[in-house]
Write a structure and sequence with these properties.
Structural class: alpha/beta
Helix content: 40-55%
Number of strands: 8
Shape: globular
Strand order of the largest sheet: 5-4-6-7-8
Order of helices and strands: HHEEHHEEHEHHEHEEHHHHH
Largest sheet: 5 strands, parallel
Distance between the termini: 71 Å
Radius of gyration: 24 Å
Length: about 325
C-alpha cells in the first residue's frame, strides 16, 4: 500500500484513465507500494521514491517487455504530475514485479468465459432460467458473456466450486429480481460477493424492486421487455461505469482485432458505432494493429472501420492491393 504518495493516487489514476488503459487497470491501490530511495537536504529536503507495482504472475507473463516499460513510464509520469506542487517528493520511476500472495489460489476461469468477452455473472433463481438464457444469448451481440449457472456449469463438475470461480473472475454482476429471489440464499450470497469486491452490480427489476445494498445501484426496469433491449441497456450501464468502462472498451477492441470472419467483425464494429463517445486512445489502439488481421481488410469491414477512424481524426487504413507481377520459379534439377 502507498503511504507517502497515497494523497496523489486518485489524481494519478485518473490521468492514466485518459492515457494508458492497461496501466489504469493495473494501477490499483492494493497493488502499489513505494520504496524510499534517499533524502536530500537541499531546498528544505527532498525524499526520493521508487513505486513498486505488483502484478499477478499469470498476468505478468502475458505482458510483453516493451509494454511493461510503457506501463511503468505512464504510471511514473502520472505520479510526477499529480505531485508537481510538492517539491519535497520526487518519484524516480516505477518497477513492475510478479507477485502472488502465499496461500491464495487464483481461480482458473478460461474454460467458463469466452475469450476477449466482458464477464458478467447473471444471478437468477431457477424459475427464471429461460429469461437468463435469453439474456445470455442477447448479450453476446454486445461483446458480453453472461455466465448462467445452469447453462455454463457442466453436470459432472462440483457446481459450488464452479460458482466460486465464476464469482471471483467476473467483471460485473446483474441480478434478475423476481419474487423468490430474496429468499434464495445462493442469490443473496452471489450479490454479497460482488458487493464485497466493489464490482458493478446491475439490479434488473422484473417483478420486485432492489433491496438492501442493491438499492444504491441504478435499477433497470424490465417488465415484459425483449431480452435484446435489456442486453443493450446492460451494455450501456457497463460502458458508463468507471469500474467497468476501461475493461469493456479493451474487450471490444480485442474482439475486433481478433475477429475470425466478416460477420463477427461487423458485429463488433456495430458496437463501436453505438459507443461513439469512446475515448480516442482506444480507437488508436485499434488503428495501430488493425492491418495485422487480414479479415479486417475486407471491403465492407474496412469501409465501416475507416468511417470510425475518420470520425476520431485518424487516417484511413488502405486496402492491400495484390501484386500483379508474377515470379518465375527457379529450376531445381534432380
Amino acid at each position: 500500500m502507498l503511504e507517502y504518495l497515497k494523497t496523489y493516487y486518485t489524481t494519478a489514476r485518473n490521468l492514466l484513465k485518459h492515457r494508458n488503459h492497461v496501466a489504469f487497470e493495473l494501477c490499483k491501490s492494493e497493488c502499489l507500494a513505494e520504496n524510499f530511495d534517499s533524502h536530500d537536504n537541499w531546498n528544505g529536503g527532498i525524499d526520493y521514491f521508487t513505486i513498486v507495482l505488483t502484478v499477478p504472475t499469470n498476468k505478468y507473463v502475458e505482458i510483453e517487455d516493451k509494454e511493461k516499460k510503457e506501463i511503468a513510464d505512464a504510471i511514473s509520469q502520472a505520479f510526477v504530475e499529480a505531485s508537481i506542487n510538492n517539491e519535497s517528493i520526487q518519484v524516480n520511476g516505477v518497477i513492475i514485479v510478479p507477485y502472488d500472495e502465499e496461500g491464495i489460489d487464483y481461480p482458473t476461469s478460461e474454460s467458463m468465459w469466452i475469450i476477449d468477452y466482458f464477464r458478467l455473472f447473471i444471478s437468477h433463481i431457477s424459475k427464471n432460467k429461460t429469461s437468463a438464457a435469453n439474456l445470455q444469448k442477447a448479450l453476446l451481440d454486445w461483446g458480453i458473456h453472461g455466465f448462467v449457472a445452469h447453462e455454463d456449469i457442466e453436470p459432472s463438475k462440483e457446481w459450488v466450486s464452479e460458482l466460486y470461480n465464476a464469482l471471483f473472475s467476473m467483471d460485473a454482476l446483474c441480478a434478475i429480481l423476481v419474487n423468490g429471489f430474496r429468499s434464495s440464499r445462493w442469490c443473496d450470497q452471489e450479490v454479497g460477493i460482488a458487493l464485497g469486491q466493489n464490482k458493478l452490480c446491475i439490479p434488473i427489476n422484473k417483478e420486485i424492486n432492489p433491496y438492501g445494498f442493491l438499492d444504491r445501484y441504478q435499477v433497470l426496469k424490465a417488465h415484459n421487455l425483449d431480452a435484446r433491449y435489456v442486453a443493450q441497456r446492460i451494455a450501456e450501464i457497463i460502458f458508463a461505469d468507471d469500474r467497468t468502462h476501461g475493461t469493456y472498451c479493451c474487450n471490444i477492441i480485442r474482439l475486433l482485432l481478433n475477429a475470425k470472419n466478416n460477420e463477427s467483425a461487423l458485429k463488433v464494429i456495430k458496437i463501436l458505432t453505438h459507443f461513439s463517445k469512446m475515448e480516442k486512445s482506444y480507437i488508436e489502439m485499434l488503428w495501430k494493429d488493425y492491418s495485422k488481421n487480414t479479415v479486417l481488410l475486407d471491403g465492407d469491414v474496412l469501409a465501416k472501420a475507416n468511417k470510425i477512424f475518420t470520425f476520431y481524426g485518424l487516417s484511413q487504413i488502405q486496402p492491400v492491393v495484390e501484386s500483379s507481377v508474377t515470379t518465375t520459379q527457379e529450376e531445381l534439377p534432380f
